[in-house]
Each structure stands twice: as C-alpha cells, then as structure tokens.
Design brief:
Three copies of one chain form a homotrimer. Chain A is α+β, with helices and mostly antiparallel strands and about 100 residues long. In chain A, about 15% of the residues lie in helices and about 25% in strands.
C-alpha cells in the first residue's frame, strides 16, 4: 500500500506546549503531536484503533504514551490532489474510500 | 485549567505572506498567524471573544493588532487523543465540551 | 486583489513522505505539499481548477507535476480574523464569499 503522506516538523522543546487536560500525564521534552488530516468516513472505533496503533508503534520507537497527542480533521474526496493538479478521487483514477 | 496545547513554528519574514484583504491593515515583519484546531460547539460570539482576547493578550506581548491573523477549524470529540493512544472524550476520561 | 495568505515551511527531504497511492508518480526530493485552509462554498469544479492552476503555475517555477500534493480543508465565515481580533466577515467589514 503506497498511501503514506507525512510531513515531519521538528521543534525545540519550548515550542511545544501540551498540558495534560487534568488527566495526570507526564510529558517529557520528547512530546510528539500527530495532526491527522484525512477523508471523512472512518467510524469512532476505526479512529480509536488509529490512536492505539500509533501509540503502540511509536512506543516501539521509544515514544512514551504520555508524550503522544493526536488530533484528527476530515474532508472529502474532492479535497485531494495526489499529483499533476488532478483530483484523482473525482476523476476516477482512485476509488474514493468507502466506495 | 491544564488544557493548553500549542505548537509554535518560527518563520523568516519572507516565509509568511499575509496581505490585508483590502482592509488597509499595516503588516510588519512580526506577523503572527494563529491556526486554531479545536472541537465544534462554540458560538459565533464565543469565537469573536477568542479573537479579541487573543489580540488583547498578544498586544501586551508586543504584537500589533494589524499583525494578527487567526483561522479556526473544528472537529468532534472522537477526534482527540491526549495521551496513551486513548480517545479520552469517547472513553469517558474527559467530559466532552458542552456536555 | 489583496487576499493572499500563505505560510511556507521548508523541510529536509527526509521530513516529507509522499508516496504515490499506487498511481505511479515519480516524486523527487523537491516535493511540494500545499495544505489549503479556506472557506466552504467552492464547487468541485472550482476545486479542480485550483489544483490544475496550482500545478500549471508551479510548473513555471520548476516544480514537477509529480511532486505536487494538495489537500483542502474548509470552515465558515465566522472562522477568520484578518487583524485586530475582529471577525471581519461577521462584523460586516468584508462580504462573506458567495454572498
């Protein structure tokens, strides 16, 4: 599956503020914020699986669970162009997810 | 309240283009763009209060009102994981805003 | 038209992963990801025109079509403050698009 699209931006520790929402997490200077932008259509359970899998795989890479913050924002199939200025989901090059 | 989550990315002046939409603002090389990602549910009045409070507090820190640009994007309670790969609003660790 | 608002963040090649979704694009180390945040209201055809125009104009600046990835996220007129902590579309300083 060749559908991985990621931008990594590195920050100095003082450029990230991520408190604990009162939940008692310990954050270190190694906080990782994952900001997911993707298409509508995944269920709440699917999203929970994304978060838990992220935590599990990042733990293997040395990221503490307390340091992982995730947000998730959604749009539609007409909102993506993978290359060449074409809207591949709309123009039939790619099947839209869930269809 | 321990609910502050911010990423600061610093840019050279030539990496930010923020014209005035014809409104006649003067922008300096100290333009600040605040890109808010948060949950649905705040009223228009609440949002106006966010913008005016931001302007007021940033003015105290030396940011000119003409240099402050804000955008606001919304998602839902299932779209946040504060730590440990859990969806805290969904799993009951945190009450969802407005509930 | 003085309505251009852009932030440019430069990345080392290993900070961007943009595979081809199985479509066979060749990406170079010069991949450009354009993340559009704007108001609701444009049609699918309008969006396709945005993508194709972007590709055309970036090609003139030396960006290969295979290196251009675009995403598009939408909000509403109450979600923008152009300066001074005011919501200009709401407070009547600017007509909301499409009205």
């Amino acid at each position: 599956m060749r559908a991985r699209f990621q931008i990594i931006t590195q920050h100095d520790p003082d450029e990230i503020i991520a408190l604990d929402a009162g939940l008692g997490f310990e954050r270190t200077s190694g906080t990782v914020i994952v900001h997911i932008f993707t298409q509508r259509g995944r269920s709440i359970q699917d999203k929970q699986l994304v978060y838990s899998t992220l935590a599990q795989q990042l733990a293997e890479a040395g990221v503490d669970g307390g340091d992982l913050f995730v947000s998730y924002f959604e749009d539609g199939p007409e909102d993506w162009s993978f290359a060449d200025g074409r809207a591949q989901y709309i123009e039939g090059d790619l099947p839209a997810p869930g269809h």
